Structure formats: structure tokens, C-alpha cells
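Q: Give me the 3D complex with beta-D-glucopyranose.
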Amino acid sequence: MLVWKRALTFYILILVFPQLTMRAERGDYQARPFCNVQINGGDLEVKMRRGVNIGNALEAPNEGDWGVVIKDEYFEIIRNAGFDTVRIPIRWSSHADNSPPFKIDENFLKRVDWVINKSLEQNLITIINIHHYEEIMEKPEEHRDRFIALWRQISEHYKDYPGLLYFELLNEPHGNLTSNLWNKLIQDSIKVIRETNPDRKIIIGPVDWNSVYRLEDLMIPVNDKNIIVTFHFYTPFEFTHQGAEWVSPSPPVGRRWTGTEAERRQITNELDIAAQWAAKNNISLFLGEFGAYSKADMASRVRWTYFVAREVEKRNIAWCYWEFCSGFGAYDPVKNEWRRDLLKALIPVSGTHYISAYTEHGEVFGSGWHNEGSYATIRLSETRIGVIIQDVFDHFEGLGSKDRVIDEGTVEIYVDGSREIRAVWRKDYTRLLLTFIIAGICLIVSLMLIRRGLGRNMLSLLWKLKN
Ligand code: BGC
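A: Here is the predicted complex, encoded as C-alpha cells.
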């Protein structure tokens, strides 16, 4: 009997113990680095597909300087919206000593731990990088040891974290960090990382701000299956960066992206370069940044974002939108809600299509995602503008046979695919003509009166009346 009881207790303990330890691990999550790889799916293969950058936060000189402080709930919001990945840009270089051993500030490291843990709690693939290390772009050789020392500390610190945590060596190498120097630096830093993180995913990208055109120059470490290659995509730059304050000269605002054949080809050609390179080199590709700044009109941003995301997916490339809640933001941090049109461009809802309407004058309402088979109402706020020479609305371009014209300035669009409806205006000179005619008549009458002497009499009569 006693033997049976002991055996039973033993089996119960075997079953219950792992559950208890798992809960304990979750409980003190934030307090210390991860050690249980299984809990958060570290070893379970989570496929990186769709992600978002939490930009303008930890890569600002200090978090908050650029208006973004990462809130704990962001990760749940991101996960619930359907993303599986976050990329967290980090400016380590502003939080580490300038002389050996280039120690990283402990409080900063704790903050990064917290952020990473919150992200991993949501089972998100979490990419951390070295971002905005401007000094290394200027003086690569002088900063080489510091760069490697940063990675030595980061990789030592996170060595027990689950596989969901990825390292990206450096955001957008450029300037004096030439391909040769960069390739050497990649080799040296990966060697250091691999001492403590033999299997961690490491992301590297080409020079010229991670340009697809420089992929050819990138030397990928041989025999390392855990390397992913990244590139960034902001084509056409004049559209995606219009009005960008940090670009000089800043491309003028007002440039639209309507998805013409030529516009689409410009994008697919560039993506093909990346995809072909990846196939040739048998390597996984990751589009680490793409997005259009909020100074561009929303309809164009939605079209561009949707098109790029889908074309990238067609090529089997994972992507990460730039960025969550700042100038390119898919999320509005003031209203605490997603900018739905952008979110749907990133993570489409099947059976919906984007109907966008454009006008050069007044306003046009009704752009947005609509269900297939429904009607989208497009309405112009005004159909006539100006005083003497008037701009007059003429017709909507882009209508199909199933669309309905309701009244002047209002149409109902049958939703059978994404479409752009354009208000076409014409100049109306009728009032100008009338003004000329009236002025002409007045002139002729006055001349006639003067000729008959009536004018002079009239003037002297007025003079008398006045006195
Ligand atoms: C930079 C950001 C910039 C973005 C788009 C990123 O790599 O770090 O500061 O807003 O690219 O230009």
C-alpha cells in the first residue's frame, strides 16, 4: 500500500513540477534574462513573416526625445493586429563608455531587457540592432573595437534568451563604412557573437543604407545556417520621403503614387534584384524597413504599402514596416488606435478592396477599404470653385459599367477590386466672358453719352448737387 502511495506521489510530482517551474519563469520574467527556452517558443520554429519597427524610441539619443516611449501594451496590440515580428532599433552607442571596455550603461540595458521581455511574452520574433551609430559611419576604423565590444556585451547578456530574439548587426551601413571594411567587421563581430550564441539568428545587410544594389558586395559567412540578409526599401524616395525633415534637400510634398504600370515596374524590378540574389546565394531575405512618410497623402501611402507588401510576400520575403507610432506610424498613439487603412494595407482582410478617390480641388470623401460586392459612395465637397475664372467639376474618371452616378459630385462604386476614382475638372470662362461683355457695354454707353454732350451736362448737374 505504502509503495503504491509513494509511486502515485512520484508520478503526480513528475506531472506537476514542470507546470510549477514554468509559471515561476513567467512570474519573474522582467527581473532577469530568459533562461527557459521552451516557454516562449524559443525552439519552436516561429516563422518571420510580417513585422513592424518600433522606431523613434530607443534609437533616439534618449528614449522619448523623438516623442516615442515604448509602452508595455504595444506588444500585445501589435500581436493582436496580426504581426509576428517586431524590430527594435537601439542606439547603444549613446549609452556606452567611449573608452575600453566600452561598458554599456546598466540602467539602459535594464530598460532594453524590459522591452525585449514584453515583446517575447507575446511570442513575437524580436529583432534588436545597433541603430544610428553615426560615428562608425564617419570613422569606421576608430570605432571598430567599440562596435565589437558592444556586441560582445549584448551577446553575452542575452545568450540564454530564446531563439525568438534575433540580432541585427548594424542599421544601414553607409558613408566611410565601405563594403570592404563592413565585410571585415561582419566577420569579426559574428565570430564574437558565435562564442556565446552559436545558433542565434543574425541579420546582416549591405552598405549604402542596406541597398538592394549593394547586395552583390556583401560577403556572407560560409557554413552558418543562421544568417539572414536584410535590405531596406523606400522606392521611389521622392514619394516615400516627401517633406522628410531629416533629408536634405527634402523632396517636395504633393507627389502621389497611383500604381501606374511604370510605378509598379519600378518597384518589382528592384525587388526582383533582391529575390534573384537571394535565390542565387540560397539565403533568407528580410525586408527590414519600408514605409511612406505621413506627409504623403494617405490614399497613396495605402496603395504603395499594399503593393510593396504583397510583392515582397510573393517573393517569399519577410518584411517589417517602418514604423509603429511615429511619423510613418501605422498606429495613432494619441487616439490609441490603428490607422485602419494602413493596417489593412499591411495585413489585408480578405474580400476587401481599397477604393481611393482623388481630386485637385475641394475634398473628396469615401476612400477606404470596402467589402467586395458592396457599393462605396464617393462624394465631392464642392463642384465649382473660384470667382471669375471658375474650376468646374466635369466627371469622375475610372468608373466601371456597374457604378452608379447619383448626382453631380456623387457616385457609387461597385467594389470588385481596388480602384482609383479621379475627379476631372475643367476651367469655365463663362463669368469672365460675361464680365467683358458688361464692361464693354458700359464703355460703349459712356462713350455715346459723352459724344452727345450729355456726359458734360450730367457732370455739371452732379457738381451743382454736391454744392
Ligand atoms: C532611420 C530613421 C528614418 C527611416 C526612414 C531609418 O533607418 O533610422 O530615422 O526615419 O530610416 O528614413
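A quick observation: Residues 29-348 form a domain with the TIM Barrel fold (CATH 3.20.20.80).
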